[in-house]
Amino acid sequence: MDTTPFWDALPPRAREALRDAGAPVVIRPGAFLMREHTRASQVFVLRAGAVKVWADRDGETAILDVLGPGDLVGEVEAADGGVRHANAEALTRVEALVLPAARFRRVLDAHPGAVWAVAAVLAERLRDSEELRLAHFPDAPERRLAGRLLRLVARFGAPVKEERPDGVTEAKPDAEDGGVEVRVPLSQQDLGRWAGMGRRKVAQILAAEPVRGGLTVARGSIVVRSVDALHRLAGHDAD
């Protein structure tokens, strides 16, 4: 399912108002934008980089999402004033606009059309939660994993490239068939934590048809040689 990032969904004047109201920040890999169980009242609009949203549940890590350029962090707490329900940790170098929740709400009040962009973000979160719950009845780990990988492709995917003998970098021929690279440092264990399964199950799925040979999870990047195969695994109907 394709979704429009928060920033792209904003009316132009609301974008300009947020630029004026926010402060640009650069966040190093491994640093936290927010921590769960706190009441820090800031909202981040991501401009570059990847952010892992995760929660600690009895010592186990549950990954809730991986956000990218144009996405919003902290919108739930800005809306209800509650404590943070999860951690937001920079996976890569992140560039963002940051502003206090109260100031963020004032921008929305001044630009009513912007509220729909926030509503779309909240609707996506709800839809994702419902999809994950439904995938457990009956249990469909392949579908859950494929859905997470497709989300990474949509947010961070770029055509697979190779360097020619003359030093020029260009897209590989198979990139025309849907081959993409996701340069985000997520391991098989991370993918399992996001899709609700163990690392061993992730490895089994990647080694079985129809994924076998079509996807590589390496240090710092994921290469998907056939996005169509992921769509089939996710149970999406062919166009």
User: Could you give me the name of the CATH homologous superfamily of the largest domain?
Assistant: Jelly Rolls
CATH topology assignment of the largest domain: Jelly Rolls
Order of helices and strands: HHEEEEEEHEEHHHEEEEHHEEH
Class from secondary-structure proportions: alpha+beta
CATH architecture of the largest domain: Sandwich
CA-atom Rg in angstroms: 19 Å
Give the overall average pLDDT. 85
Protein name: Crp/Fnr family transcriptional regulator
Pfam families: cNMP_binding, HTH_Crp_2
Domain Cyclic nucleotide-binding: 6-108
Keywords: DNA-binding, Transcription, Transcription regulation
Compact summary:
It contains 9 helices and 14 strands. The chain is α+β, with helices and mostly antiparallel strands.
Written account of the structure:
- By secondary structure, the protein is an alpha+beta fold.
- The chain has 2 domains: 6-134, Sandwich (Jelly Rolls), CATH 2.60.120.10; 138-234, Winged helix-like DNA-binding domain superfamily/Winged helix DNA-binding domain (Arc Repressor Mutant, subunit A).
- The chain contains 9 helices and 14 strands.
- A 4-stranded antiparallel beta sheet has the order 1-8-3-6. Strands 2-7-4-5 form a 4-stranded antiparallel beta sheet. Strands 9-12-14-13 form a 4-stranded antiparallel beta sheet.
- A hairpin with a 2-residue loop joins β4 and β5 (60-67).
- α2 runs antiparallel to α4, α6 (141-156) runs antiparallel to α9 and α7 (188-195) packs across α8.
- InterPro entries: cNMP-bd_dom, cNMP-bd_dom_sf, Env_Response_Regulators, HTH_CRP, RmlC-like_jellyroll, WH-like_DNA-bd_sf, WH_DNA-bd_sf.
- Pfam families: cNMP_binding (PF00027), HTH_Crp_2 (PF13545).
